[in-house]
Amino acid sequence: MSNPPRSLKLIRYRGIYYSELVEFAQDAISNIIEEIPTDSVSYILWLKEQRQECTKKVESLEQRAYTVQSNIRPSTDLQEKLRRFKLSSLPSPLPFVHYPLICTIDLDLQILTTSSNTHFSLRNLPRDPSQSSSSRSSSASSLNNPTPVFTPELDCDPAGYETAYLSSCLPPTKWVFTDGSVHQSFFTLVFSNFKAGYYDFLLRDFSRWSPDDFVFRELAYAIVSLAAAQVSFRTVQPTHSSLLAQRPGLTMYQPSMPSELALGCHVQGESPGSAPEESMYWFNDLLVSLIPEIPGLRSIYRDKAVWFGCQARKSSFHAILLSLCTVTLVEVTIQDEIPTVKYTEPLALLGNFNPPTENPEDPYQLPLSPDTPEPLRLRPHSPQDKGNAGFIALSNFFAAATLRSLKPVNAGSRGRLPTELYLMILNYTDNVTFRTCSRVSRLFRSYCQLGLRIYSTPLDIIGVGCIQGYLTDISEKHDLVITKVSSPFSFTVQNRTSGESLDWSPREFLSPSITSPRELHLVPVFGQGMRLSESCRATITLVGEA
After folding, report:
1. CB contact burial 84-106 (16+ within 10 A = b; e otherwise)
2. Domain range holding 523?
3. Are residues 200 and 104 in the same domain?
């Protein structure tokens, strides 16, 4: 006898999601709502009990956590114990499951969100689906919003809000242009793969994230890093596993550290992931503000970002409002302590991931059947495709913010050594020093952008180290350099040891009939120091030309 179909109920508390499988039935949400008391005192006790249960689960998990030590090999007994409990591979790959989401209960905001993305206060829930029409005018339905999140932190009336600064709109065409450089072409290609790799993930889960959630911050930081060209790439060898049969088209790689992006594995003493823990921070010389995708509130979040930037800096600055779906570019000029704000309309970035509403009149709308197939994966765009215009504008915006803070090229900034010597010195620097040099002056930045480094991190250095239960630093040895982009779209890659140069093209844009024994798999690595994350979903596969 087959098991009855099930759906997913999520509980969110202090930024952590707790999942529970419930039977997929027409009255599933009604049963969940019936468990929430209506009496004020009983409700407070219920809420306290739910929060305590979540806290106990976290404490229990922490007691069972195994700490990965940096450069310290565990004892033979511990290695055997890890293998016995099947914990030898870190991070352990998560099994793929696809259960339709029935609802999310946020214990922080005290909100229940249905699969149709309708929000209800836990203190005033409609107890009967027949209340659908009347609930539209009730206080409970005042949270109804066709947007992914609810934002109670705003202390003003969005409907009557007027901007606090002198503002004007900029045409987005100012930033949408291509320069044909190696950096812009390659990073736009990586972004296209990134967007395609996370499309189904975002389509399924985006509606339950807020800007302070871990996954939201990690994905946003990855986009910002790509736009700023602050990403490393390492070569990997693809391997197959049993999961390939479950998810055709998804290439699996040997588990290793850095952790997969948004997975949350981290080394001792470091925070999970690679992104800052705040939803508003400085990235180099540009202010990043993570916001929900709520069109009616953009002016409020824009003013908050301007106020934050003015408190930190007395001069002009650039800022972005990033919601994953879109990005707004903001220029702030301060003269006589009075800021003037220029901004673009939201530019499309990853796409629109608001879930479809089959019956907007039903506050208990059930998710799609568990038998509904997984959405098709989005195919990567060519870097010249208009679907990448938002990312190209963001990339150019970052470049403008960086150049504003650097010394212009003149006779006094050229240094005393010949250009060839500077290039040779930079060629032998580690990654951190190389990035620091790129921010010394515009001249040094131009030197650093002549090529794009690819780091050689074979699995016997990083992967095996993690499989045995300890972490080694990512190798700083870059054996390959992308030196040129040509048309038709291809890259010239130079081997630093042999000096040999070969042309490579992305697999996605070649005819399926074209085969080559030479393939180069490049995985983007985000972050700095020991707080690193990589994205196998955004892996670039380059095929060597004959």
Report:
1. eeeebbbbeeeeeeebbbbbbbb
2. 166-354+373-544
3. no
